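[step 3/7] inverse_fold.run input=structure_tokens len=153
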């Protein structure tokens, strides 16, 4: 089994502003780093926005990352032990704090590339029912612990 994950954020500032540059100017670099990281399998490269700028998760202010990793430990290493961590620590500068979960994970068969619709259903399930084998956050994975040491700025 592989680990799928969806991570969403909503801009609180104009992404074209100077204040957003610290994030916007690093997206390509962080995505490339993920793709070279041990355990990386796949990521949805295009958010497929409609004519109004909406993606399948939310409106024009919503960003998403949908990816698959060989296991939780490899995803954990990428998130918390690479330059990704520095970007994450500055998340509050650019993005609203969501009242619901912003991250959901679930297990998929090796070779499966989950759809955005499935990812949204998993996120909705996590928000409605909490951690389960169907949809979960870091706390549902007792063998990974780096997330416990992190806090958004």
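[step 3/7] decode complete -> sequence:
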């Amino acid at each position: 089994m592989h680990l799928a994950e969806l991570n969403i954020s909503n801009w609180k500032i104009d992404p074209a502003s100077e204040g957003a540059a610290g994030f916007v100017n690093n997206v390509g670099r962080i995505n490339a780093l993920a793709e070279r990281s041990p355990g990386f399998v796949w990521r949805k490269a295009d958010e497929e926005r409609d004519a109004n700028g909406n993606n399948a998760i939310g409106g024009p202010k919503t960003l998403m990352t949908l990816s698959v990793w060989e296991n939780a430990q490899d995803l954990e290493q990428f998130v918390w032990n690479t330059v990704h961590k520095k970007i994450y620590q500055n998340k509050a500068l650019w993005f609203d704090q969501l009242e619901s979960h912003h991250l959901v994970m679930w297990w998929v068969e090796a070779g499966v590339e989950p759809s955005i619709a499935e990812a949204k259903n998993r996120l909705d399930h996590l928000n409605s029912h909490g951690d389960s084998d169907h949809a979960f956050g870091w706390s549902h994975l007792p063998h990974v612990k780096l997330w416990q040491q992190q806090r958004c700025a």
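[step 4/7] annotate
The chain has a mean pLDDT of 91.
The two ends are 34 Å apart (CA to CA).
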